[in-house]
Specification:
The complex is a heterodimer of chains A (335) and B (471). With 335 residues, chain A is mainly beta. Chain A contains two helices and 25 strands. In chain A, the strands form six sheets. A five-stranded antiparallel beta sheet of chain A has the order 1-2-25-24-23, with helices on one face. Chain A has a four-stranded antiparallel beta sheet with strand order 3-4-5-6, with no helix packed on it. A four-stranded antiparallel beta sheet of chain A has the order 7-8-9-10, with no helix packed on it. Chain A has one domain: Neuraminidase (6 Propeller). Chain B has a two-stranded antiparallel sheet with strand order 1-2. Chain B has a two-stranded antiparallel sheet with strand order 3-4. In chain B, strands 5-6 form a two-stranded antiparallel ribbon. Chain B is globular and about 85 Å long. In chain B, helix 22 packs across helix 24. Chain B has two domains: 271 residues, no CATH class; 82 residues, no CATH class. In chain B, strand 3 and strand 4 form a beta hairpin. By secondary structure, chain B is mainly α. Chain B contains 24 helices and six strands. Classes of the chains: A mainly beta (335), B mainly alpha (471). The interface between A and B is large, with 45 and 31 residues.
């Protein structure tokens, strides 16, 4: 691993990391606000655990590495979460969270107050079975992937059904337990076809444009992809969850490189925790900390308007941040 | 299909697995007994897939590197509920009960998971290789203090338990042998580990420190040499006591309950000839565990009707067997945590045995509290007609428009896996059914529901019977 990777005309520089286990508990999805706030939904532990499953969503200040708002909580009542999966900010500024077990979308205000619910359980048009990824397009319509109905549905901002596509299988345009969802600047829809180890790209109307990946561990291949994002150049970042990496592809789907995680220093919030516990400081000094650098089950990726690539990890509860450089000048090789 | 074939297959699946639905029993009988044994022994060769970890981790992300103990148990239970390789999982449980390592001291369910997985991977391979892997297993090293055993200050905990509980049994070695074994394993330790926060658990790593190993001459079980750990294991395997000790464990786990391990040096085996035959098969195959299991399951002493229901089910068998019978949790869903805690309530907190001696088994599984807990657990689930396995039993019995009370009770016993009740117990249930009037399936929704209720009531009464506690 290197802190700077130059592949062809792309250069990725590792920047820093944010968060820890205490910030996010098995996070499953993340979206960004342009002012440097991450919205993260955490799957938590088994909801049956009497000590609390820590299902939640929170707003995290990326600069200060501190929590702004935390909401949710385990349960099956109003505003509770069982298997929270996807998160996005709606056109009304509210926060929309899919619940893969409850088969609905919970709506919270930006301050974390419960506002209402979308969706009923079923396989008919507009019904939900296993809702996972959710993203709003620039017109305010929401696309929702469903792991058990194996399809994508499009709703208007009030939650009314507009269209849908997909079906169970491994053929073109079919899905096997789809997970995350992403909409690029052109309105095209990327779906993490989790069980088929591929990403499929569709027009807003569901016409298949491209497939990325294929099963395996080689560079360019995928194992259970969970999330995608695109940068301002059109490059596509895919979370290769099963292979513990994020792969970058160009807009035609050709592989560019893979990121494996490079967090050689602690996040600010993690540093505060360590410094408050002197035995942890000592324990870290006797151990090999290089194991900490790499991704552990990355689950979601997001790209901000500075072409920074943010990767959140399900096990470590951490966000690692890379900068895609515009004008990087590589030093002489035999320096 | 002959009922005796079903009864034998049900016996095999209770012992070599966690029971089976009637449909599975019928399929396996059609395939044949020996063929079923072969598939159980070598599932990969028959294309039987392992548990899909990715599917589990997607829905239970904390199971992968658990922070809190119940997630470690959840991981183990998920395998027991869903595996298509039941003997592999049963052997995992077997070794967990023999090489008992407890999270109470390890305080790291991730490492316990790793050890359990090692049993899953190697539990049917070669016993020597398994012992070497065990000696290098970080959880075991920490559990028995081998990381505190140094060249000039050996700790005898691992050396003693290796001989006493993991291979030869009491009475077959001396205190000097314990000291020598302990010296031979000095330097077998664990690398310094990262703390559990701020980013969660990282797997521990075995480390051999040559500078901390006592390389001087040792005398162990009559042999002299500059022994290291693997030499000790090789010498242990040259001793006939080792094969006999593990054979008795295998007999007690798969054939019929034995007295508790500390009594073995004083009390003869229940069936000395069978235990010796297992020991001979074990040593004769150069400690090939799979070969030994093949011998056991195909032996007359295993198939003998006298050993059927001669074992008290351990709580893991009660819970996993019931969940598999009713067809629940075959896909990920919330709530496994309750079942993980239930193992402890019934007296077998998985990944946390009470001591290195493991759990006391047989009739010691049963006390007043545990018995009530077991009966209530099983009865509540068998009373739920919405569960696919229960529904299947109701539908099968409902193939006929009417039946006698005897036929209804016998049908339930058969469909639960050829369960045998003492005649007095059976007759009490028959009398109860008779008190409810003629047994008819009916045709209206209310009549069919009432029939289903009567079936589940019989299933619950069977589950409450003393005999149902036996495997």
């Amino acid at each position: 691993m290197a802190l700077i990777q130059t592949i062809g005309d792309r250069t990725y520089t590792y920047s820093h990391c944010v968060g820890s286990l205490f910030a996010f508990t098995a996070p499953s999805d993340m979206v960004l606000r342009p002012d440097g706030v991450a919205y993260v939904v955490s799957r938590g532990g088994d909801p049956g655990y009497p000590l609390g499953g820590r299902q939640k969503w929170n707003k995290w200040d990326l600069e200060g590495d501190v929590k702004i708002v935390e909401a949710g909580g385990q349960g099956m009542g109003e505003g509770d979460l069982m298997w929270p999966s996807g998160i996005d900010i709606g056109p009304d500024g509210n926060v929309y969270i899919t619940d893969e077990y409850m088969n609905h979308v919970n709506i919270f205000s930006d301050d974390g107050d419960f506002m209402g619910t979308w969706g009923t359980s079923g396989s008919g048009e507009g019904q939900l079975d296993g809702p996972t990824g959710i993203r709003f397009d620039t017109d305010g319509n929401a696309y929702v992937a469903e792991s058990r109905n194996n399809r994508v549905q499009k709703f208007n901002s009030s939650g009314e059904y507009l269209s849908g596509w997909g079906g169970a299988g491994d053929g073109a345009g079919q899905f096997n337990m789809p997970y995350g969802l992403h909409i690029d600047s052109g309105g095209n829809v990327f779906v993490a076809d989790w069980g088929n180890d591929r990403v499929q790209k569709f027009t807003p109307d569901g016409e298949l444009l491209m497939q990325i990946g294929g099963s395996g561990t080689e560079i360019g291949q995928l194992q259970r992809p969970t999330s995608m994002a695109t940068d301002s150049d059109g490059d596509v970042y895919v979370v290769d969850w099963g292979n513990n990496r994020v792969q970058a592809y160009d807009e035609t789907g050709d592989i560019i490189t893979a990121l494996y995680g490079d967090a050689r220093e602690l996040s600010k919030s993690a540093q505060v925790f360590i410094e408050a516990n002197s035995d942890f400081v000592k324990a870290r000094r006797r151990a090999d900390t290089s194991k900490e650098w790499t991704f552990r089950r990355p689950s979601a990726v997001a790209v901000n308007d500075k072409n920074q690539i943010l990767v959140i990890e399900s096990i470590s509860g951490r966000i690692q941040i890379y900068q895609k450089e515009d004008d990087y000048l590589d030093p002489q090789f035999n320096l | 299909m002959a009922s005796k074939d079903i009864a034998l297959m049900a016996h095999l699946m209770r012992r070599a697995g966690f029971g089976a639905s009637y449909e599975e029993l019928e399929e396996r009988v059609a395939k044949g007994y020996e063929a079923t044994v072969e598939e159980l022994l070598d599932p990969a060769a028959y294309g039987v897939p392992p548990v899909d970890n990715f599917l589990m981790w997607r829905y239970h992300p904390m199971n992968e590197l658990p922070q809190a103990p119940p997630y470690g148990t959840m991981n183990f239970l998920y395998y027991m509920f869903t595996t298509k390789r039941p003997l592999e999982e049963k052997m995992t449980l077997f070794w967990h009960m023999v090489f008992a390592t407890g999270n109470s001291k390890i305080d790291n369910p991730t490492e316990m998971n790793r050890q359990i997985n090692m049993f899953r991977e190697s539990g049917m391979d070669n016993y020597r290789d398994l012992l070497v892997r065990l000696a290098k297993d970080p959880a075991m090293i920490f559990w028995l203090d081998n990381n505190m055993s140094h060249k000039h200050a050996p700790n005898e905990n691992w050396g003693r338990e290796l001989l006493e509980l993991f291979s030869m049994g009491q009475g077959n070695y001396s205190e000097d042998d314990v000291k020598m074994a302990s010296r031979a394993f000095t330097g077998w330790t664990i690398k310094a580990k990262l703390p559990r926060a701020p980013y969660g658990r990282y797997l521990w790593e075995f480390e051999y420190r040559a500078e901390d190993h006592d390389d001087s001459e040792k005398e162990f079980l009559g042999r002299k040499g500059n022994f290291n750990g693997e030499d000790i294991i090789d010498i242990i395997l040259e001793e006939p006591a080792t094969a006999r000790f593990i054979a008795r464990h295998l007999y007690s786990f798969f054939v019929a309950d034995e007295v508790q391990v500390p009594s073995w040096k004083d009390v003869a085996p229940r069936d000395p000839e069978a235990v010796q035959a297992i020991a001979d098969a074990f040593a004769g195959s150069n400690y090939d565990i799979k070969e030994t299991l093949r011998f056991i399951f195909n032996s007359d002493f295993f198939k003998d009707e006298a050993v059927r229901f001669a074992k008290v089910k351990n709580p893991a068998e009660v819970i996993a067997g019931t969940i598999r019978l009713i067809g629940d949790y075959q896909e990920p869903k919330p709530g496994v945590m309750h079942l993980a805690l239930e193992t402890g309530y019934q007296g077998q907190e998985l990944i946390n045995p009470p001591s290195v001696e493991g759990w006391h088994t047989g009739s010691e599984w049963i006390d007043t509290g545990a018995l009530v807990r077991r009966v209530n657990f099983v009865a509540s689930l068998l009373g739920d007609a919405s569960k696919p396995g229960v529904r299947s039993i109701i539908d099968k019995l409902g193939n006929r428009e009417s039946m006698t009370a005897d036929e209804m009770v016998d049908g339930c016993l058969e469909l639960l896996g050829a369960i045998q009740l003492e005649e007095g117990t059976r007759q009490q249930i028959v009398t109860h059914v008779e008190s409810g009037g003629e047994v008819r399936r009916g045709s209206t929704e209310e009549e069919v529901a009432a029939f289903g209720h009567r079936v589940t009531e019989v299933l619950q009464l069977i589950a409450a019977a003393r005999e149902y506690q036996f495997a």
